[in-house]
Each structure stands twice: as C-alpha cells, then as structure tokens.
Protein translocase subunit SecF
Amino acid sequence: IVGQKKTYLTISGILVGLSVVAMLVFGFREGIDFKGGAILTFKADAGASDIHGVEQMFRADLGLSDARVNYDAGNKNFLARIPHASEQEHQNYNSLLKAKLAGFEELSFQSIGPSVGAELRQRSLIALALVLIGISLYVAFAFRKVYRPVSSWKYGWVTLASLFHDVAIPAGLLAVLGHYGKVEIDGNFIVALLVVMGFSVHDTIVVFDRIRENLLLDRGKSEFGKVINESVNQTLARSINTSLTLILVLLALYFTGPATLSYFVLTLLVGVTTGIYSSIFVASPLLHAWHAATARRAVAR
C-alpha cells in the first residue's frame, strides 16, 4: 500500500479536484427542502409512460414552468414538485387537475416556505461542519497515547481529509447530475452524507487502531511504512467483506426501491464505495506521506 501511495493519492486528488470544480461551476439544484415549494402526491389513471405528458400539463395548463413530476412505481402514484403555493392556489390547482387529468385524486400536499428552506439549509451545513470537527477531535483524543512516529493530532487531520474525500465525490456527482439531469438535492442528501461520514470514519478508525496496536507492540523496531502495510493487510478482509455486504443491500434498494429514494441510495452507494477506497488507499498512505515529508524537513535542518 505505502509503496504505491503516489498512485493512490493521485487518483484521489484527481477525483476530488473534479468534484470540487463541478460543485463550484455547476452548483447544486436545490430541492423544495432548501428553496421552498410544495409537493403534491396524487393518483390518476395515467401511468409511468405518461409522465412527460403529465409534467407538460402542469407547466402549460397550470402555468408552473418549474414543475417536476415523478412516478412512484411501488405505490403507483405521482409526485409533483411545484413552487410554494397558498391554500387558494392549491385548491385552484386541484380543480384544474380534476378537469384535465382523468382519475385525479390528491393523496397529500406538503408546502415549505422559502424562509424555512433557507433555515434548513443553514442548519444542514452547520451539522456537517460540526460532525467533521467532532470526528477529528475524537480521533486525535483516541490516539493521544501514540506520539511516535506520528503525533495524535495528525491522525485527526488525516481522518478529516479522508472524510472530505468521501463527501466531495458523491457531492460532485450530484452537482453534475443536477446540471445535466436536473436532479435536485434535499434533506435526504444531507442525511446520506452524514451516513457516509459515519461509515467512512468507522472503517478508517479500524485501520488506524490496528496501526496504533502494532506501533505499541513493535516499539520502534520496524519502519513506519512496514507497520502501516501490515496493519492494512490485517484489516483488509474485514473491511472489504463488511463493505460489500452493505453495497449489495444498497444495490438491491436502488434497483427495487421507490423512485423517491433513488438518488439518496445513489449518494450512499458512491459515498460508501469511496469510503472503502479511502480507508485503505488514502488515509494510511496520506499518514505515511505526511510522516515522510516531516522526516525529510527534519533531516534538511
């Protein structure tokens, strides 16, 4: 692992760089949770094959140019995402839909005001930041007894870098999908990122904990790179087996689950996959690269 660290870190750097560029250039297409709006869930005689016509009806007949309509094959109903509507506008839409769409029956109507959406967005960003900081501090504290050859706080910073790697790549993918496929992010997206961070840090800590144990047992007899390689190899089978089990479950949910959760599950899939990669091929090599750079500077002095 350590011998090929430049290759692994270069791959990660390229992926993270492209993801950051995508987020900066494309941004995110915010859903109702963040920008405000309404979700109308209804049944009709139409089916999945008529979804384009139903969406055009919302745009042309109801005057909602930003309307997005999805079909939930599992529950056999439609979900229309529309701008924020007052109760009077809501009733007017229902009257028009009953006249235009055969078999129309409203199942639910949820409305979120723009101010509520903005507050939720702010709280979501704060939650992500607090989780990242909290995890880094916890790792630094947990490894406080390991000060040679790498200080405990470096474990925390490397964990933070790995988490950013695991969050940035799925976020970049959603930015691209939002630009080209009009995919929106909502509260589920934030939940998915939090789940990814929890899974990723768990795998990373397992590897780091084995490094800590081996360092204490080795007592400085072996090179740091050798200890890292042995530690990663000792935890490799467990990490892959656990992760593959989760990936299989997510794949089943992605292909058979409700359409409303498809991008939530996709975010988890990409995040978990990058988390597997980072816990094995990013975190430990990055820790060794930092140690090697520090050692070179010490020799130069």
Observations:
- The mean pLDDT is 86.
- The domain at 37-112 is CATH 3.30.70.3400 (Alpha-Beta Plaits).
- The chain has two domains: 2-31+116-300, 37-112.
